[in-house]
Specification:
Strand content: 5-15%
Distance between the termini: 16 Å
Radius of gyration: 22 Å
Helix content: 40-55%
Oligomer: single chain
Shape: globular
Strand order of the largest sheet: 1-2
Order of helices and strands: EEEEHHHHHHH
Largest sheet: 2 strands, antiparallel
């Protein structure tokens, strides 16, 4: 198909060993499956691009620490500060680097938002339209996990495309290739994805 595909161990058996030329001792290299993630720079990444393990880890982190904060002796203001300045950034940091779906983020947002409602003295079933809505329309303007993750990704994208970093160069190359692939004179970022998305190659 012209695309790289990682094979599972059962389809491509074999072992890799490194031999020390001085001692002649052979050391086996641990082999993992393509869908098995490993922690690197604070993010759990898998060779095949799936993010299920990182999502599970983020949910576990959120649930564990919120449970501890909820049963602590902190005041409501203290609990709010602990969640918004310590826990939420720790949970959100890896999500920017993985290919998470809206459903994945909603699972984490449900945990964080329920506790935020509790810290604000609101029922956990408080209408999300009011909670997330802008103040101009009578809302509380509390950004959810999806909004925060999207804004972080945009900031990351803008930073690297405006600076001469290795990541910025890769992004510039990807943007150029994608523009050629779309085959239109207008920049693809100015066009609706729902109308022109089918022209782009699906990526992980």
């Amino acid at each position: 198909t012209g695309r790289i595909q990682y094979e599972k161990r059962k389809n491509a058996p074999g072992d890799i060993t490194l031999r020390n030329p001085e001692t002649k001792i052979e050391t086996p290299i641990l082999r993992i499956e393509p869908n098995e993630g490993r922690r690197t720079l604070g993010v759990i990444l898998a060779p095949d691009g799936n993010c299920s393990q990182q999502i599970s880890k983020s949910k576990e982190l959120a649930a564990t620490y919120i449970g501890k904060i909820k049963h602590s002796k902190l005041s409501k203001q203290g609990k709010w500060t602990a969640v918004t300045t310590i826990l939420e950034p720790a949970v959100m940091y890896p999500l920017m680097a993985i290919n998470s779906t809206r459903t994945d983020l909603e699972k984490i947002d449900r945990i964080l938002t329920n506790f935020k409602c509790s810290a604000l003295g609101l029922n956990e079933h408080f209408p999300r339209a009011i909670l997330y809505g802008p103040m101009a329309l009578g809302g509380m303007s509390l950004p959810n996990t999806i909004t925060k993750n999207t804004s972080t990704r945009i900031t990351y994208f803008l930073y690297h495309t405006r600076t001469n970093t290795p990541i910025g160069k890769k992004l510039d190359a990807s943007i150029t290739f994608l523009q050629f692939e779309v085959g239109l004179f207008d920049h693809f970022l100015t066009m609706p994805f729902s109308q022109y998305g089918h022209l782009c190659t699906t990526t992980l």
